[in-house]
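Pipeline run #58 for the internal structure catalog. This entry was flagged by the ingest filter as a single-chain record with no existing model, so it goes straight to prediction. Upstream metadata was stripped on purpose; only the residue string is passed forward. Reviewer on rotation: M.T. Logging verbosity set to normal.
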Amino acid sequence: MAHSKSSKTYKGGIMASNTTLILKGLSHLRYKKLNRELIGFVREADLDPISLEDVRLYASATNDDPSRYSEESLIPPLFVSRLIHPFLIDTILDPRLEMNILKMVHGELEIKWIAPVFVKDRLRLRMEIKEIIDTKAGELLKISFIILKDNSEVAEAIAGLLIRSPQEREKGKSDGEEKREVILKKSIQTEGDQALRYAEASLDNNLIHTSNLFAKISGLKRTILHGVCGFAITCNELIKEFCNNDSARIVSMKGRFAHPIYPGDTLTLVCYRSESEKEVEFELVNKYGKKNIRFGRFEFR
């Protein structure tokens, strides 16, 4: 079992340049399977204070209103993903993991918000590679992230990264899902340049989001929108509809990323009644009926 700790402080800039990603992407094409010896690998670090500029940039890239945020406000809920990204990129670029990064997409995400996080807060983050499992779509790497403030947990995330197999295809089937009561349908419009803006705001400049050439090398039609961007946009709409636009009421959110979202797509958020009054099940669907986010669950206070 691999185990490592670090007291390094991560800065606000992008951890890897486009040139680095291009070179790494090409060099990692030779990798076929993830190195499971890295299960249990741990990294810890203090983070820089959260800046208002970064918060507003993230809000703008996720169909949120940046003017809502001030130096005394809560951060956007999915800003958590920006905090963890430097750890994530360091891990997937580590040659010891043997990841083909041009075949990698976010497979699933679950986040729990435990306590408020504000602009200017100083935080510490702990990352651990939890497991690597085989699925029909490819290998799924699960990484946990614990965010702490004053030694108390304020958020927890589990990211599932999918390394797509050559045989993997999105079929768009219903998978025998039972009929559920629809309680909301809402149209969401993405923008043609949204992947580029989100890449800057989130620090995630994976080439499948920024380069049509490398997206095609990876087997895609063109660049795709970050799955987490679609997740953040969905989260904002759910907060408006079920939390009276009060992000402090969100408890948890999870979902599985399925069919790619292409910048400029018109999407539909479909919400279903759940057994709990404080929970909503949801899906994000494109105009062709293909599901972009499946098995979604949103819990609130």
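catalog note: Residues 1-15, 170-176 have pLDDT under 50 and may be disordered.
catalog note: The radius of gyration is 18 Å.
status: ready for reviewer M.T.
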